[in-house]
Specification:
Low-confidence stretches: none
Strand content: under 5%
Number of helices: 9
Order of helices and strands: HHHHHHHHH
Structural class: mainly alpha
Helix content: over 70%
Distance between the termini: 31 Å
């Protein structure tokens, strides 16, 4: 049996991987029977870990040059130009967009948003995304349990 420390490390590092994010980390925590609060904190913390490095590093110019504004869809650029950090918060808070903290930080850097405001918006959006994912996953599992109990 895996110890709670091992489970916590697995959830933390799973959420820190850009393409995995909170969705996989919260699901993994549910599979490992971890408490919801602990899995949420670990997932939110793990996925936020690369954000300060991406926003405040001196290599940000390389990120901007590599990605450029042309690599994002037109509707994202339009909303980012119009609403700024609020659009960033919404894009990250909706877990179904596929944009996590990593890509949110890259997007903030490319769009030349204020770094401090972006960091706060990314964190708040990340916490909202974890809450949505945890709620949806709990609801799906409850429905499946109720259906299986009826059979």
């Amino acid at each position: 049996m895996i110890s709670m420390i091992g489970k916590s490390i697995a959830v933390f590092f799973t959420s820190a991987i850009p393409f995995m994010g909170n969705q996989i980390a919260v699901t993994l925590a549910k599979i490992l029977h971890m408490p919801k609060l602990l899995s949420g904190v670990l997932s939110a913390t793990g996925s936020y870990t690369p954000v300060p490095f991406l926003l405040y590093s001196k290599h940000g110019e390389q990120i901007e040059a590599a990605a450029g504004k042309k690599s994002f869809p037109e509707f994202i650029k339009k909303y980012m130009d119009r609403y700024g950090c609020l659009a960033l918060l919404v894009l990250i808070a909706l877990p179904f967009t596929g944009l996590g903290c990593f890509f949110g930080a890259v997007l903030a850097r490319i769009m030349h948003l204020d770094k401090n405001r972006s960091a706060v918006c990314i964190f708040i959006g990340n916490v909202i995304a974890v809450l949505i994912i945890t709620g949806c996953l709990s609801g799906i599992i409850a429905v499946i349990q109720n259906i299986s109990a009826c059979l």
